[in-house]
Amino acid sequence: MVPLRGLQLLCCAVVAGIGIHFSLGTPTPRDNTSIAVAAFELAYRAESGVDAALDAATAGLSKVSVKVQRNDTMDQIFRRMQLSLTDLANIRALDGARSALDRLRPGDELTFARRGDELVGIERPLSLSQTLKVQRGEDNGFTASVEEVPLTRHVITTGGAIDSSLFAAGTAAGLRDITTMALAEVFRWDVDFVLDLRQGDSFRLVYEQLEREGRIVADGEILAAEFINEGRRFRAVRYVNAEGKADFYTPEGTSLRKAFLKAPVQFSRISSVFNPSRRHPVLNRIRAHRGVDYAAPTGTPVKAAGAGRIQFRGVKGGFGNVVEVEHSGRVVTRYGHLSRFAKGVGQGSKVEQGQVIGYVGSTGLATGPHLHFEYIERGVYVDPQKAIRRAQPGPPVPAAERDRFALQSAPLLAKLDLPATGAATAVAALSPVAR
């Protein structure tokens, strides 16, 4: 196969030969052969010159990938690689380069191009669709640019059945853990993935995979999903409304969101239920247990079960560190035994449903790390599981957008009924992926 560069030169040679043909008059067959040979020799010499120039440009050039470690800085990385700190200072003086290179996170990857001891360039992915490129110029100075990396979006249909856990089933279906978590988030108002999950439950979903330069680099959005829990079928479809806001709805256009989440802690286990006659494990006497205990490792995020305002944040008796959220309808939810509070969550501040307000701990009267969760309605303690089960759904798709919703949702819901693809069913080039 002739390389593209050689093919271009060959075309030039043929054009030159044709010019010679017409300038000399009608040649003999022998003249034709001589003209062709001369043209190919010309092309060969030209291509050899290009190759020589490329070889000279890349001679001695090496690339080294560096994975950022905890507490790493560019200064430390340059010192480890024995690179010029003067070069680093000049690079950090470039617009856009300083902030992009100073904000390093463990696991980030940097690629250094060098010729001997001299730095030639640096590449750092800024996102799935953007890469920072720093290059040394002929004047020995550096330039920085952000290049867009074209992404390809594949729409995948997959599914699985629960045997040991949701994560194991997700892995078997080819899902990344982050997508399995997103699946649980979609149905978190209807399925308690701590208490309700049963062996034999199943799921299907239509979701995006993002490909960059021929390699799958991430999962994208879940577009439609189905979960069957103890024979009950739940379906959801992602709808982007006229204002560009995305949310999940049932096929009929009812919001999946409800006033309260079924569980304020994901993937924990219930260690104690609502029980007015429980014997307290520390005090060893009958004392009403007016909430639900979710056992989870210290530091597990605790989320506000519903939107509201913080009416108390501090230490309160046996609850230890506690947050109380006041909601509409004279409802208060209480979150006890926290190890610490989330940043930005102060007394009187507003919180959204699902917002992290603290972290699981064992402060106060607790035998181990867990969240004590209470639901108080008009001053009366109510079993949180029963109260949340009757929570009302959020606003449906507006009547004015019903046709738009049907147009978006119909093809996605149809894919849920198709066999799992394991490969792309639709492909669209995006640069970058837009939402």
Describe what you observe in this structure.
With 435 residues, the chain is of the alpha+beta class. It folds into 4 domains: 4-45; 61-148, Nuclear Transport Factor 2, Chain: A; 153-257 and 395-430, Roll (Nuclear Transport Factor 2, Chain: A); 269-389, Distorted Sandwich (Glucose Permease (Domain IIA)). It has helices at 4-24, 29-58, 74-80, 85-92, 97-102, 166-172, 177-186, 384-389, 402-416; strands at residues 61-67, 109-115, 118-127, 130-136, 142-148, 151-161, 202-212, 215-229, 232-240, 246-249, 269-272, 291-295, 301-303, 308-315, 321-327, 331-341, 350-351, 356-360, 370-377, 380-382, 427-430. Strands 11, 12, 13, 14, 15, 16, 17, 18, 19 and 20 form a 10-stranded antiparallel beta sheet that branches. It has a 6-stranded antiparallel beta sheet with strand order 10-9-8-7-6-21, with helices on both faces. Strands 1-2-3-4-5 form a 5-stranded antiparallel beta sheet. The two termini are 42 Å apart. Residues 1-7, 9-18, 20-27, 50-57 and 423-435 have low confidence and may be disordered.
Main attributes of the structure:
435 residues, alpha+beta, Nuclear Transport Factor 2, Chain: A, 4 domains, ten-stranded antiparallel sheet, six-stranded antiparallel sheet, 9 helices, 25% helix, disordered N terminus, disordered C terminus
Short note summarizing the structure:
This protein is of the alpha+beta class and 435 residues long.
